[in-house]
Description:
Blueprint: H1 2-7, H2 13-27, H3 41-45, E1 52-65, E2 68-70, E3 79-83, E4 94-98, H4 104-107, E5 119-126, E6 134-143, H5 171-182, H6 190-200, E7 202-203, E8 206-211, E9 218-220, E10 231-235, E11 257-261, H7 262-268, E12 272-273, E13 278-279, E14 287-288, E15 292-294, H8 300-313, E16 324-325, E17 335-336, H9 339-348, H10 353-366, H11 372-375, H12 379-384
Parallel strand pairs: 4-6, 12-15, 16-17
Antiparallel strand pairs: 1-2, 1-3, 1-5, 3-4, 5-6, 7-8, 8-9, 10-11, 13-14, 14-15
Helix pairs in contact: 8-9
Amino acid sequence: MLPIMNRHLGTGRALALALISALVVVLSPVAPATAATPLTVSQAIGQQTGATQTVRGYVVGQPTATNTVVRSDFPNDYALAIADSASQTSTSQMLYVQIPSAYRAQWGLKTNPGLMGKQIDVTGALSAYFSHPGMTGTSAFALAGGTTEPPPGGTSPWDSTYYAPAMGKTGTALRTSLHDIIDAHTQLSYDQVWTALKDTDQDPANTANVIELYTGRSISKSSNGGNLGQWNREHVWAQSRGGFTTSAGPGTDLHHIRPEDVAVNSTRGNKDFDLGGSAVSGCTDCWTDADSFEPRDAVKGDVARMLLYMAIRYEGGDGFNNLEMSSTVGSSSTLIGDLEVLIAWNSEDPVSTFEMRRNDRIHSTWQGNRNPFIDHPEWATAIWN
């Protein structure tokens, strides 16, 4: 076409320019359609016209009546309430969302209480539900980030009781709430720790033995002490890195004290936790270098969850130091790292039956508090992102 147009430029310049303009229009890329921005909950409340819309809001509970929304002990998976703020408690500022049967297993709160506090997008008809501004005939659910899968983590038998004040919270609010929940507990003497560990770390295959944390070795409960070949009390948050002693307090907190081989305990010393180094004698799949220690894969998550507990439990308000995590190793005598590695270990090594029993025994028999990161490992990323 261009040669033909060139031949006519002398006598039909206007026509040629028109043809060029037309070609440019045809060949120009068409701008992609922009997806409509979801309505806010307040906008949806004001637009109860029956029109189909997508609304974005935070899950704040389950509606059970016109003016009633429950935040725990969810009776079923039939509905949820969303609001423009995760901390909203006024039902007048909530949209009640009907959950059709096809979506209840994934998006109902009885089955998925971990949805509390999550920001989601829901699509359906804006019409009253429970005689309250709502959405019916819901046809799509997604986390605000775009995935149609609900968040990981989820349920614990303690959600509606022990953890009820923390449910639905994230970040600093979650951290503060968990600290308030776990900070009141029975403090043991250092001698009592010996007896407690023989219960909490009992070998499920041999009740006369305990399991050492790093080595994984089953050893007689009575073979405790300070000599080579015996087991002693390993402070996973090293005493010198927290400025505490073995007086009642963090130095006797069972949630981070475990049986360990005397020699391996000495090798770990007060080092941070990280990857790599040289093989540790007597500890298969353990590695160490000048400033860090890497435990065997089977307990990396255990180590991470114990340290995360300590950082939440000890915030400096009860006469003990404020224990904090570090994103580096070997750089501080008062912090424990590497935070990013530990967060990864928490995800990669799931909670074991041994850990769950241990948490239960500490709670029911010895201290009266729980490690929340064993019950809800996903709370690690909810706090430290």
